[in-house]
Amino acid sequence: MKIIITGGAGFIGSHVVRRFVNTYPQYQIINLDKLTYAGNLANLKDIEDRPNYTFVKGDITDGPFIETLFEREQPDAVIHLAAESHVDRSISNPLDFVLTNVVGTVNLLNAARSHWKGEGSKRFYHVSTDEVYGALGETGMFTEETKYDPHSPYSASKAGSDHFVRAYHDTYGLNTVISNCSNNYGSHHFPEKLIPLAIHNIKNNKPVPVYGKGENIRDWLWVEDHARAIDIIFHQAKAGDTYNIGGHNEWKNIDLINLLCSIMDRKLGRAEGESAKLITFVKDRAGHDLRYAIDSTKLQQELGWVPSLQFEEGLEKTVDWYLTNEDWLENVTSGAYQDYYKKQYSYR
Ligand code: NAD
Ligand code: TDX
Fold first, then answer.
1. ipTM of the complex
2. Residue range 139-171, pLDDT digits in tens
3. Is 321 part of any domain?
């Protein structure tokens, strides 16, 4: 089987590519990635020489290029993760999100439709987010039946792409699958997102920006548990099906940051409470969703997936990874990152 995995140089994509290359030596894995600011081939150094792995640099918004790639490679499946993924950037530049997340997804769907000609065995798997469901109040959880209600340009673009994927199943009979996952954390996470940004800032004794009062709640999942869920769903789901993925692991942002500060105190040999002094409450994110919580009962009961790692243990492993991979962090935080950071955090 030949699988195109899009966005394989990014955070989650690199974990998915690594898992598939290592677990299925009989599969050919093609990593298709534009290498935007978020894409980094250093994420895949350990597997880049494997005979069942190829990297192709390319842009999913370029329809003719995608057609040519399908013609040349004749893939048997697509696992689609390439996206603009950061909510704050979507607030500044919504059109980039429409182009990559909606137009890019439709380009891939068109190529799959025209090349696969209704062959039911060929699967198009779209990796999506819980943010399409909107925001929860203090109670309740998102299930696969929850109505879509996106609030940010990012989640609106992901909702749009999910709708197109379902439309290609219903209209053209494409063998599609969608999974909607909660917030991931782990190694190789770009330091614009809360956890790696906080680790980077604490390490460098810089303010740790917490939006609003830090009361928003996110449901965190170890990225390797997400990659394992994708593997299981890719191989076992019925055509047209949807699964929610999440770890039943809700944290208020401020509680998470306090936990992270105490882990960092211990790892850096600082006095308890030292890192927490860096916490700085800043202007809230526009349209900031209050709470996400995923009900993954369907995935657990039908396909037997369960999360493997406790959050405290996973967070500690994540901190260890960032502290032992300082070069990775220094490389991705030089240059354009500095411009982004100044712009993003200056007005708050
Ligand atoms: P990321 O930003 O770390 O990586 C995105 C990758 O896509 C990068 O390698 C980038 O170079 C590539 N890319 C971007 N635009 C492209 C284009 N036009 N053509 C080709 N490649 C392009 O993102 P991530 O956090 O790893 O998220 C991966 C996927 O999972 C996304 O679809 C995201 O919506 C979804 N998701 C993420 C989370 C999370 O917590 N990070 C949770 C649920 C779902
Ligand atoms: O500096 C910050 N301070 C802060 O308080 C940042 C960057 C974030 N936050 C808050 C906003 C959120 O409530 O922390 C929470 C997590 O923020 P992000 O790491 O930006 O993630 P989120 O907006 O929840 O979206 C993530 O999870 C779902 C991913 O970026 C998405 O791609 C995914 O779909």
1. 0.99
2. 999 999 999 999 999 999 999 999 999 999 999
3. no
